[in-house]
Amino acid sequence: CRMAQKIKQDEIRIGENIRRVRLERGIGQTELVRMLQLEGVEMTRETLVKIERGIQHIQAVQLRALRDALDTSYDELLK
To answer: Cα 11 to the chain's mean position, in Å?
Structure first.
């Protein structure tokens, strides 16, 4: 089975960017997780919390789903 591609958060503060954009949009963590699950992306609120805190790597599929759900760009999330 193919390992899911994970993106390290060492240099890039992806989690902080996700949290900032989410708050700018006025979307709660639970609501965002529900949006991802409706798109078929497996994520729990606990996982989102860890990603936002930068203590869990984010999978490429999760990043793409978050970009779409937050109606933002990779540039905004990866800066």
So the answer is: 16
